[in-house]
Every structure is written in C-alpha cells, then in structure tokens.
Amino acid sequence: MELYFWLAACGTLAGVTTVLFGFGGGFVVVPLLYQALTHLRGPEAPAASHAMQIAVATSTCVMIFGSAMATAKHQRAGSLDWTAIKPLLVSIAIGSALGAATAAAVQGSWLRWAFVVYVGLTIVDCWLRPGFLSQPAQAARPAQARTAWVGVAIGWVAALLGVGGSVMTVPLLRRRGASMTGATAMASPLSLPVALAGTATYVALSWGGMTNLGRGYVGYVDLRAFLALVSGSYVGIRLATPYIGRIPDQVHARVYVGLLIAVEVSMLLG
C-alpha cells in the first residue's frame, strides 16, 4: 500500500510536468515504475522481468488522462494552435501503434537503453543546436503535408519509450518558431493519439498469448499503479494550471532540458 501512496505523490509531479512541459507524464512515470518494479517489489516478482514494458505501457495509459485534461486546460488558456497540430494527429496515431508493438516484442534491457540513448541525444540536441534555448517567441509555422512521416516517427518513438510526444514535438515546434508555452501546450493534444493508439495496442497484444502477469494487469498495463498515478496527476494538473504562460521563455526552455537531464540520471543509476 505504501508503494501506491508513493506513486500517487509522484503522479502529482507527472501532472505538473504534463501541463507545463508537455511530457504527458512519461518522463516521470517510466523511470519511477521501472525502479518500483525492479527494486521495491524485488527481482523475484513475476513482473520484474517485464519491468520496462510494464513501465512504458502503464505510462502510455496514464497519458490518456493527463493529455486530455492538459489539452482542455490549454484550450481554455488560449495557448493551442490547432493549425500546427491537426496535420500530425493521424500519422502520430499510426506510429504509436507500431511503437507499442515494437516495445512488446523486444527485451526489456534493450528498451531501457533505447530510452537512455534517445533522451541523451535529445538533451545534446536541445543544448547545442541553435533555436531551442534562445528562440524568440513568434507564431509557429503550420505543419505541411510532408510532415506525415515525421508524425509516424514521433508516434513510434513516443509509444516505444512511453514518453508521449513532447520529446520530439517540443523541439520540432520550437524550431518552427513557437514559444515554449506554445510548444509545450501543443505537445498535450499530440500526446493524446500516442496514448490512445499505444494503449489499445498494448491491450490487444495481451489477447495473443502474451506472458500472463497475474491479477491487476491488462496486458502490460499495471491497473493499480495506473489508478494511483492518475489520482496524483489530477492534483498536479490542477496545481500547475495557474502557471500556464507565466514562465519566462528562456527559463522555460532551460528547465525543460534540466528535467530531461534528471530523468537521464535516474535511468542510468537504476
């Protein structure tokens, strides 16, 4: 029971990062659940050998709630530009289904290191390539039809690693001229197709003879952890909503990169 109170508390942090950084909770939930399944529950637990898949699948499911609620909050705050969002929605959903299927098929250790490598590359890219840390705010340029393949790639990575669309869409939209408020706001509706398509794929895979993890699981989704995380996420989203659009742009960008570094360190030490 203590574990689930801890998950709820960390879910609050996930809710805050969903609203203010567009993370969809994945960057908090994946390392958190991985640590819980491999250390707190012990390596002998049935779920331990599938810890990374469970963490990714549960994170993707939590994103349904977090992304939907954050999208509604940003819509009310007027920080969404639907002209830049709509061209990517369908292709991201397709990529998400492919990413979830890939995650279920690979070894958990490979998935963990794929997470570490990708987050590391994102940190280096945001820090060194011009246009992210010191991008002057301006109207984002609309996505073009050719970005359909970009959407598939975003969805594939987001569902494969359980991190939502933020890890790719925020740098992409930022370099297309969006402010950090605009880029992180648009990450929430773009994470929603990731969450829906990815979760549906993870659950569908459980009907095909996947390893039975016991009670409390639907496919790779840990239902008890899901409920604890969603409860905390609701509180975090409510707490963070008044700060939408109030963080200075360059501070916002640097904190975004700082959070990625914290996640990277957590996974490397796990």
User: Strand-residue fraction?
Assistant: under 5%
The secondary structure category is mainly alpha
The tally of strands reads 2
Distance between the termini: 22 Å
Helix content: over 70%
Q: What is the average of the pLDDT values? A: 80
Rg computed from alpha carbons, rounded to a whole number of angstroms: 17 Å
Q: In terms of per-residue confidence, which ranges show pLDDT below 50 for 5 or more consecutive residues?
A: none
Largest sheet, in brief, is: 2 strands, antiparallel
Sequence of secondary-structure elements: HHHHHHHHEEHH
Q: What best-fitting shape do the alpha-carbon axes yield?
A: globular
Written overview of the protein:
The mean pLDDT is 80. A hairpin with a 2-residue loop joins strand 1 (217-218) and strand 2 (221-222). The chain is 73% helix and 1% strand. Helix 2 (26-40) packs antiparallel against helix 3, helix 3 crosses helix 8 (180-205) and helix 4 packs parallel to helix 8. Strands 1-2 form a two-stranded antiparallel sheet. The chain is mainly alpha-helical.
In short:
The chain has 270 residues and is mainly α.
Secondary-structure topology with pairs:
Elements: H1 2-21, H2 26-40, H3 51-77, H4 82-105, H5 108-128, H6 148-161, H7 166-175, H8 180-205, E1 217-218, E2 221-222, H9 223-240, H10 249-269
Antiparallel strand pairs: 1-2
Helix pairs in contact: 1-2, 1-3, 1-8, 1-9, 2-3, 3-8, 3-9, 4-6, 4-8, 5-10, 6-8, 7-8
From the structure above, extract its key features.
single chain, 270 residues, globular
